[in-house]
Amino acid sequence: MSVEGIGLALSGGGFRAGLFHLGALWRLNELGWLQRIDDITSVSGGSITSAHLGLQWSKLHFDSQGVATNFQQVVVTPLREFYSHTIDTTTILTGMLNPFISAGEKLDHAYAKRLFGKATLQNLPDPEPGVPRFTFYATNLQTGASVRMSRAYLGDYRIGRIEQPTIRLSSVVAASSAFPPFYCPFEIEVDPEAWKKWDEGGDFFKPLANQKKLYLGDGGIYDNMGMERLWNRRQTILISDAGAPMKVFEREGEVAENYAGTMSRVLDIMTEQTRALRKRMFVSALKSNEKQGTYWGIATRIADYALTENHHAPPLLSDNAKTARLAQVRTRLDEFKPEEQEDLINWGYALTDAAMRRYVIAPVVPAGSLPCPNHLV
Q: Which distant-in-sequence residues (6+ apart) come within 8 Å of 207 by Cβ?
């Protein structure tokens, strides 16, 4: 398999991630890079923004420089409206109190009502030059493997693939963001006759390919940065990471002694270690020139890109107490006020600008302008 082209990975992290990535996509569009990307992969909160971008792709008007001139109208405005509503409280409470519907099903309904309607994976664009492939990650709770969902196929390397799946986009995003314990497992119905075995792998094809349901969880359980497909297929990789580093408990008594608190902490540690290992592998590949690209994260210090020291225009923002706090913003699926939205959009935009100018594009490219100029971080 030849490894070439450009991939973009959008991490998980609830509505916080969706807004941070919106700022990143905003800057990539201005740089003329959206049309250059061959693959966009996403997890959890990142899948909300990515799925909306994919669904609206055909409406974007690209100029001769590869810039979508109506990006704000088609992509930004509907997403900002969506992120101004709380959907986790009602979906979780209904799932707990109503024995006839799960919280995951209610989440699916909320996504359909507010953003995706009846669209399916087949409503995403067909990949071609200038049009990326959109892939959404969930985790199969039966096999422990990553499940990839795209227009071309739904696949689990331990089972097989279903080609041209017609799963509703709201269900795909609900599965990708089915964070335990409330939304997990999220059930997706499949046709057992549709499974095809991979040329390699598929060690559980026989026992699992005859089942009518997949039991899925948040894609971040397996890979919260969603970079696995890109690692195997793309030479240049851009990673937008809205996952916060795990909080260190500095005081005695902060570690919970109840079962729920302990399990939550254990899950945080496991997620952090998986994320750290993947990030370390990626940075090592960049340093050795095995891969090209760059990484920006919500907890990144923008000064670390050393723009002025390397003859670039200075960064759009400076590190301060407010930018540091953004990494600790909640990862819930609840209402984000306009000020919160603009902070996250500006920070994602500024970090993307710094990372791209430092490591990917020519030094002569000027810095951008913050998309929310009336509200600076």
A: none
CA distance 280 to 225: 12
High-pLDDT (> 70) share of the chain, %: 95
Contacts within 8 Å (CB) and 24+ apart, 95-102: 95/182, 95/183, 96/182, 102/186, 102/187
Give the Cα-Cα-Cα angle 364, 369, 370 (nearest 5 degrees).
140
Q: Which of 68, 370, 360, 138 is nearest to 239 (CA)?
A: 360
Confidence of residue 254 (pLDDT cuts 50, 70, 90): low
**Cβ contact 195:246 at 8 Å:** no
Q: How far apart are CA 245 and CA 336, in angstroms?
A: 21
CATH 3.30.70.20, applies to 6-359: no
Q: Whole-prediction pTM value?
A: 0.94
Decide: helix, strand or coil at residue 31: coil
Q: Around 311, how many Cα atoms within 13 Å sit in the side-chain half-sphere?
A: 4
**Count of beta carbons in the 10 Å neighbourhood of residue 176:** 31
Please, where are the H alpha helices in the chain? 14-30, 45-56, 71, 77-82, 88-97, 103-111, 169-176, 205-208, 220-223, 228-233, 259-287, 321-326, 338-359
Q: Specify the DSSP element, H or E, that contains 149.
A: strand 146-150
Helices (H), 134-214: 169-176, 205-208
Whether the bond into 165 is cis, omega within 30 of 0: no
